[in-house]
Amino acid sequence: MHEEIAEFSLKKAQELGCKYVEVRAEERISNGFVLKNGNLEISGFDINNGIGIRYLVNNNIGFVSFNNFDRKNIIQILKKSISTTKNSSRISKDIYFSDEKQEKADYKINQKEKIKDATEDRKIKILKEIDNEISKLPQRYLSLGDEVAEKYYINSEGSRVHSMIPRVSFMYFITINKNKKSIQKYFTHGACSGYESIKKWNLEKKIPEQVSILENNLANGVKSPKEKMDLIIGSEVTGIAVHESVGHPYEADRILGREAAQAGESFINIKMINTKIASSIVNVVEDPTMENSYGYYLYDDEGVKAGKKYLIKKGMVNEFLHNRETAFELKMKSNGCSRANNYDVEPIIRMSNTYVEAGNSSEEEIIKETKKGIYMKSYMQWNIDDKRYNQRYTGSEAYLIEKGEIKKPVFAPIMEITTPKLWSSIDMVGKKIGMYVGNCGKGEPMQGIPVYFGGPVMRLNNIMVK
Amino acid sequence: MESIIHYISKELKKKAMDDVVVAMYEKEGKQLKFVDNKVVKTGYELASNISIFCSKDKKIIYTSLKDISKSRADELIKKVKEFSKDLPQNNDYYGIAKGPFKYKTKVDYDKKIMDINESDMLEKGINKALEDSKRVSGNLEVWHLKTHLVTSNDVDAVDYSSNLYFSIRAFNEKDESGHMTCCSNTLRNFSIEKTSERAAEIATLAKNPKEIKSGKYPVILSHMAFAPLLNNISDAASMYNVESGFSFLKELNRSYGNFTLEDDATLPNGFNSCRFDEEGVPTEKTKIIENGILKTYLHNTSTAKKYKTRTTANAGLIAPRSFNIVFDCKKGDIFDVKEGIYITNVWYTRFQNYATGDFSTIPRDGAFLVKNGKIVQSLKGLRISDNMINLLKNIKCCNKKVLQIKSWEAETPAFTSEVLINDVNITKPEH
Fold first, then answer.
1. Domain over A3-220 is classified CATH 2.60.40.2970
2. What's CA A427's distance to the chain center, in Å?
3. Do strands A284-286 and A181-191 pair parallel, antiparallel, or not at all (unpaired)?
4. A60 to chain B: which residues are within 8 Å by CB?
5. A91-122 pLDDT, tens per residue?
6. Nearest CB partner across the interface for B347, out of A258, A386, A418
7. What is the distance between the alpha carbons of residues B370 and B341, in angstroms, rounded to a whole number?
8. Using one digit for the tens of pLDDT, what is the confidence trace for A320-365?
9. Cβ <8 Å between B350 and A88
């Protein structure tokens, strides 16, 4: 880590006229392995380190990054960057940050089975053993990766935050063929932890189970009746829906238009706080502090302490995701949602771990109380418009429900629905929460960032299923 | 004096590696991000990165060096040696290209590109768009890249590129927006004002959008809307994706309609044009699909040897990839429809099944109902929910105006016209 260089850079940026400066020195040590159709296609390791500096000069934001730590070089780069910012000043917006508490912290996640002690041999064995269980499939794409990210964040207001976050992930993509039909499934597991998480995921058992389920769907799945009925969605579908149609439209930078050109804006506006958006049994939480979660952090990339917050409370719009810029614009404090996926990009508002809170019904009760419907347990295809209003989820594992009982599998049922309709149609919420891993894209340049999303099984009352 | 990449290559060979490919990328870049007519962030980046690929007894290791010094290189070389010990062989690996090569491709290049006054340039673009729209947001980027490639098979080559990219989205009232991008290697072909004008023109046309019935329509895809789908097709042509299940292009010599799709890294004005691929093979023009017939997949030396063909100079050392996509088909009047839909942009293309080609994508910005060849109504709330093979087979014609499009959704630049596609399935959400 280049902590001294970070301090040097901060001091130099101030000397060059920046009234606010924040510096992130980062080092990410990673390993990755890909097993394609049983063959070890890629194996590699990487050490990615560098420094990113964001500053305010004449109330305009500049961002500069580099990975050459020579001090003379740093001064030259800072001068060039500040000159670019000043040159654009006449067409720039004045930016202000909310006042926030100075933070001093040092935190890390303890690993029971340390990433640095996991041998290449062990990692390859994990992949090979899973592959052996599903070797009958013609196309199998398995990937295992790990990373230890060390970060030293400092700003000119005195904050100093050091963190060390390990992360492991496993992804599979499989193709199942039967009777000239095929079905595909893509799924990722992930955690901020050491290799102990691999055992918890129980991959050697779960993946062959998933293959059997999809084979059954492929062989026996019927077409979805195209009509209005109750739709039960599994935790996996709840997760993607809450991420796409609650998390994203509640990002204050979208609401205020900062991502308008690419990631888009939001159908939500600032006047909608405390207005009805969902059934009163719906509560949506965003919480970066969940232990070992894939989107874990305790301090964001503006040095603001993170915490649990309710985006929707009893069906009402409750709170947006903020950084210091949007918080200032709306005359409030930041709630610590600013993140960058690497040292060389600016921090922007991101989700972390987003979920629907548990309700009162068991999965069995929800099924039993459904006279006619479909249970979409998982999905493959999904998308949503750039205002987060018009969305579509196509089922992967799905079943017909008749008179409170699960019947035949259904092949690729579709929910295509607006956000208000989706969240106001919920009439039953399950007791048990499942969480799922994603890599969320946003920003220019594009930043993919680890997120976690989920919730319980939920029932949508009387909606169109195709 | 020996360069760091020659040193790394030599030392890895000393450690008994069979194939070694070392590439150094030196990039300098600037960015202006603007929102509601004002710059909200300036960016400046200076980065060097060395990527290293090596094989030992068919064991493959891929790594990189960012903190560039001899001592760090020595640590990395030691680690490569240790890392390779426990690896199993990659039975699908068949080696890298044998050089040396002569390079003929000449790409438009301006070494002074970093000296432009990007603020003046952007201001002109913003002002032009504001003549016909209320607010604009977007991104202007300029960068310079030097690539130096050395391999253990006698390649030692250098390439330089200069790049300009501009993206602008113009807004009027609610749901009335237009988006356009432009990209170029030099200032000569980089027209910010025309791009801004087009974005504003679409936003103006998009007045008072309404919903339309679901169903099958003839659909006209603009340059911006078609380029992301062309990216999906060229991705499906990579042999790596074919083997992995990420491809609907199943069989060589099968017909996929009546159009021609090339990858061409030799175009002087191609945004991703370059002299050589990632293993040093001179770049070339490759007809992937000719008159609808799938002629070849995209290969590097290793995948080509596996399938007993020749490399198409599309390394990616792991996964072959396209550089610049070029589309062409029969010319015609794309607005010659009784009732159709003109779509100016799409985003969020996702596949239910890559192998069958079942997918959906969401039109964004201006979309229009066309009746008897004329735009009669602005539309919203659409989705294309169809199959990629059906879509390709239903391509009817294209117009003559070819643009090079690169965007968030079209990472690989595509030279394309606007196209008319028959019987496209349009769906809409339940409210």
1. no
2. 26
3. unpaired
4. 39, 42
5. 999 999 999 999 999 999 999 999 999 999 99
6. A386
7. 6
8. 999 999 999 999 999 999 999 999 999 999 999 999 999 999 999 9
9. no
